[in-house]
Amino acid sequence: MDELWQRYRAFWIPVLIGIGVFLLGLIAVHVITDDPATENKRVVGEGKKVRKLVQPSKAQSRNVPENANVLREPVKDWALRLDQAGGRDPLEYAVETSLQSSILRGLGPDALRQGIADSDREVLDRFDGDGVAAGRALARYEATRQDRLTLLRSGDPNVGFSRLLSDVWNELKVRANRADVDIRPTAEVLGFGSVTSVTRAALPQRLLNLAMITELLDIGIRSGIRSIEDIRIEARPDVDVQERFIRQWPFTLALRGDMAALRPVVARLTDPQRPVPLTHLVLAQPARGSPLDGIVQLTARAASTVVAPDASLNLNSEDEAQ
Length: 322
Known about the structure:
The structure is a single chain. By secondary structure, the chain is α+β, with helices and mostly antiparallel strands. The protein folds into two domains: 2-52, no CATH class; 83-307, Alpha-Beta Plaits (2-Layer Sandwich), CATH 3.30.70. It has eleven helices and five strands, in the order ααααααααβαββαββα. A five-stranded mixed sheet has the order 1-2-3-5-4. The radius of gyration is 33 Å and the shape is elongated.
């Protein structure tokens, strides 16, 4: 036997090596790849799905661009309604809305200027009938508006936002005190106390949240709410940061008062012409209180939004399809 091995060793060694490599390859194929029978069933199933698909006719294919043009205008219309700034520059909108809601008590500068000139009682009643105070508020608004816009556009975003927040908070705090509206500790600084800094990228979120919160509080203070119970700013948006079509930045607001005082706030949140995205809206009796008091608490989780109707949804991309 040893003699045979010595004589034919040069032949058997390559043969045995080849058999070993073949067995290793066979084992690797079975480990790495799926079972052939299972894979065959999958392929047959996918084939059946493909055969069931209906190919659009040429006429249908030609109608796709036309249908897209028909739908484009309604999409833009709804986008302008849902977009908090209504298609305006978000920075300019947020600054003006925040200052008008706090300093001008919900009035636009032109409306206040005309009301002062005409001694309009309905306008001046927002300033306790004091036309001089209304005029000073208008002058303060115009000076502050320009200064804050300039700082936010060209200066440090953190400094610009902090100064605007300070302006709005000081105005609302004084108004709430004069109207006997309590401000709970969780609502101090309009909920922005936990926001340590504001980057340029986060500026639209913070500004639009501030504008919406200020607008709602102005309505509540003027309508006679009893207290501002809680304001919480969400740390992160609900949607994927890569989403371009719509961006949402939620916040939570809790107010307490009778139904007459809370009704205008609810009306603003549910206005069909200026819809506010809501994920939570509850009117309930406070935990500590009597039904005889007629006091209820409104808790709303709403969101500021920016909508770009022309942005692609990437529906045809392979990643989105998966």
